[in-house]
Please model this.
Amino acid sequence: MAIREPILKPVPISELRPTQMTVGYREVEEKRRRWREHPADKKAEFLGAHMIPTLLGPKKRHYVIDHHHLARALELEGVETVLVTVVADLHELDKDAFWTVCDHRAWVHPYGADGVRVGFKDIPKAVADLADDPYRSLAGELRRAGGFAKDTTPFSEFLWADFLRRTVKEKRIASDFSAALEQAMALAKSPEAGYLPGWCGPVT
Model:
């Protein structure tokens, strides 16, 4: 049952449990830059307006279901605690049942940086242990550049990342991100991307 109950007592970022394997490190760095540029007297207000949505899982641990990049960026910037919003209280479930519910509700994305699905036990136990997926960074930048629209589909940017993974070479992302983004933009407007959430290519 969704309750969307804000937890006014801050939760340590170090205690947050991820529900995905990876983030885009480039995107994390961008969020760090924006945080540093935020006026010091407005940072508390920012945190209050960007509560982390979580599930209350087994042993009453908080499992993050969105804003993994923000949580990691804040942790790297020395922020120790964040406010969370509990989307569902599942703490009475055992671990297997908990992950089954998460899977069916699209609250978990157990895919590695190679796009291959892994077991739930392989999901990192801490935000600090999230691996880098360069294609997730490319997908995030592609959306900001207008390559596709923000969409409510869970993990939509990971779907775009997997689409780009099949064509754009990882070496190009590392050596010339602008060129990789240009290639991604062309791919995003192609009919081949028409099945993806937020696609805004030409309609024929």
